[in-house]
Structure formats: C-alpha cells, structure tokens
Amino acid sequence: MDQRDQELLDKQLWGVSERPQPVGVIVGFIMVFLVGLGIGDVLFKIRQGNPAVANIDFAALNSSPDGSGAPKQRGP
Predict the structure, then answer these.
(1) 57-76 pLDDT, tens per residue?
(2) pTM of the predicted model over 0.85
(3) Among 55, 57, 54, 58, which Cα is nearest to 43's?
(4) CA of residue 11 relative to chain centroid, distance
(5) Among residues 69, 51, 72, 52, which one has the least CA distance to residue 60?
(6) CB 45 within 8 A of CB 53
(7) What is the DSSP-derived secondary structure letter of residue 71?
(8) Interior CA angle at 44 toward 42 and 48, to 5°?
(9) pLDDT surpassing 70 at residue 40
(10) pLDDT, tens only, 48-57
C-alpha cells in the first residue's frame, strides 16, 4: 500500500475511527431528557385535571408547619 492508498483509506474511514465522547456532554443530554420527562409528566397530569398534582403548593413544601420556615427542632 502506497501513500496515495493510505490517504484514500483514511478518507473512507474517517467516521469509523473511535473518538471518545466527552462524559459531560453525554450526562448533559441525559439530564435534559430526564428533566423534560418530569416537566411533561407534571403538565400532562395538570391538563388531565388531577387535583393531587394541580394543587401542589411548592412554597409550603419548603416551610415548617408553623409557617416560619425554620427547621423543626427535635429533642426533649
């Protein structure tokens, strides 16, 4: 095989060579996909009129039962 044959072979096989994909890009695509699934699920349930999902008060989930926002104290 001469130099010209090698160059032609390289041109033909340029897409076959194994180049490792950056892990961050792959993880990013997976995260965007999963977030999209979650958002789509919530929107679908709201459109279906599911009151358990449609009436979620997200601010109440982060606050304490007395409404102060402070963590609940445990102990004697």
Answers:
(1) 655 555 566 655 555 555 55
(2) no
(3) 54
(4) 36
(5) 69
(6) yes
(7) P
(8) 115
(9) yes
(10) 876 665 556 6
